[in-house]
Amino acid sequence: MSLFRPSVDQLHGYVPGEQPQEPGWVKLNTNENPYPPSPAVVEAITRTAKDRLHVYPDPLGRSFCRAAAEVLGVEPEWIIPANGSDENLTILVRTFTDKNDLISYPYPSYILYETLAEIQGTRHARLRLNADWSWNTRLNRPLLEQTKLLFVPNPNSPSGNKWDAGTILSLVPQQGVLVLDEAYGDFADQPHKLELLRGDKGDRIIVTRTFSKSYSLAGLRFGFAVAHPDTVAAMRKVKDSYNCDALSLAAAEAAIRDQAWMLSNRAKIVATRTRLQTALTELGFNVVPSQANFVWCTHPTRSHEELYLALKARKILIRYMKFPGGVDADAAHPEGLLDGLRITIGTDPQVDAFLSALSEII
Ligand SMILES: *Cc1c(COP(=O)(O)O)cnc(C)c1O
């Protein structure tokens, strides 16, 4: 007999992307930033390491909250930092849902939402998107009406498209909250300004952001959420006391204060993104116009998995992703299986290496 919780026994567990630790890979598989973080980050870490490691950090990370509040134009009480944005997603699940509550999320999107619901043992549901990645609000209405916690990544992953504010507002559950996961928000044409939090439904929307992508700090583990102070207060009750360590708090504060650095990396990535999209289209791929730091593409005839493996044999790592039941079954998708390739925007030399290998293979 198993001693584990039944929900743990049944769990598949989230499978993160491959993280080869040896050098020599062109790594375009987990949406990291190819450029280094601001030099101010390393300075802040060094300074903190010299004299702040023997004492506990501020459990609320207030100095970071003040810096983020200034940059974002909100009050510090609206900010809650976490050990990576993923931790805030976990905290939100624990704050809002019991086992009879429904957690829902678009499908295909970030697979972690489903894993978090399975761990918590709540009811959960996939909300089906149209083949062009738009929302079928009418089809999803019955599930939305029962939803307590809705996760929506915007821009979405793996597709990279972004839904407009009107669509997002129409999704806010009547009896629940919407978590707007803006992990890729900084890469969009019109970067988010938190306007939805100031509107009518603002107290039922929680925005989450990460330092792993636009701020080049995936190795650090830091993210934060922006929400109504009542929500922040409830989330604080649920989190570990010292969920953010002194080094990451200091580093994140330095990073968010250096907007110029982040924006200049963003501009390089957006330029490379345009180039990559054009090149993939010329190679015969269908490419979803991306608002993120990656591109989703499918090929009308070639096996995506074989392309991924052929690239991997050349030490070029991209992400092969498959979503059973992701589309309506038709001639092109006999079992309703949606699959494709997600390519992170690297440096220009990395993207060139990828493109020349891919054109050889094809
Ligand atoms: C990368 C990512 C996150 C996680 O960010 P971390 O801060 O690294 O935990 C959350 N949501 C989406 C959609 C992501 O792609």
UniProtKB/TrEMBL annotation:
Q: Which UniProt keywords apply?
A: Amino-acid biosynthesis, Aminotransferase, Histidine biosynthesis, Pyridoxal phosphate, Transferase
Q: Does the keyword Amino-acid biosynthesis apply?
A: yes
Which pathway does the database say it acts in? Amino-acid biosynthesis; L-histidine biosynthesis; L-histidine from 5-phospho-alpha-D-ribose 1-diphosphate: step 7/9
GO terms (BP aspect): L-histidine biosynthetic process
For activity, the cofactor(s) needed are: pyridoxal 5'-phosphate
Could you tell me which residue ranges the Aminotransferase class I/classII large domain spans?
Answer: 25-358
Top enzyme category: transferase
**Which residues are recorded as modified (N6-(pyridoxal phosphate)lysine)?**
213
The name of this protein is: Histidinol-phosphate aminotransferase
Organism ancestry: Bacteria, Pseudomonadati, Planctomycetota, Planctomycetia, Planctomycetales
